[in-house]
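Let us work through a complete example step by step.
Step 1: write down the sequence.
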Amino acid sequence: MKAQSIRIASYNLQKCVGLDLRRRPDRSLQVIADLVAPVVVLQEADKRLPPRPAALPHEMAEAQGWQVVDFGEPAGSLGFHGNAMLIRPDIGVLTTAHIDLPGLEPRGAIRADLATAIGPLRVIGTHLGLIRRYRLLQLRAIMRHLSQLSPMPTVLAGDFNEWGPARALDNVTPGLLILPERPSFPSPRPVAPLDRFAISGNLVARNHGTHSARPARVASDHLPVWADLTRR
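Step 2: predict the structure and record it as tokens.
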């Protein structure tokens, strides 16, 4: 019998503004649906300026059958520092938390412990900083947060903002394997693997890649990425 697997996806929405400079949350939702993933981690899900209203409105996501995971975000926002998570109804939420990250610019991460087809799964979503020094500090902060929790199969997903090989980040993510690079930026002709996954040793990635089918190449400047995970 084939082992159960689950698809996790990550997508930097660019505030739902496409390369045509049109804000089209309906188009963003089409791309998200095309990923066929029951768990989707989002970045830049809110508009930039306070009070940071949702770029992808709650009601639009819910109308498409998504549950917006609650991380205690400000009223009107979809996420914490723009990080958000959508799940399908067959995914259960066990606990949630958000993590403040150090750096020159406001950054954060979100955590949801989920009940899934492969058992309990801890999903961290983040959008790391533009400067490597701060990316490393931010990853260390996430790892400190994880070290205070009981063990659980874990996937870290998001926009790592790292243009180079994953080995630059390996030293600060002990216990997590950063999956091989899949270029996701810029969306028309991707060359940089900014959007990544890192998984704990009790998970296996059967496959992972980028999603480039229309309208993904115009809906954001990032392509979404996905990974099919199973328990080891």
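Step 3: interpret the result. The mean pLDDT is 94.
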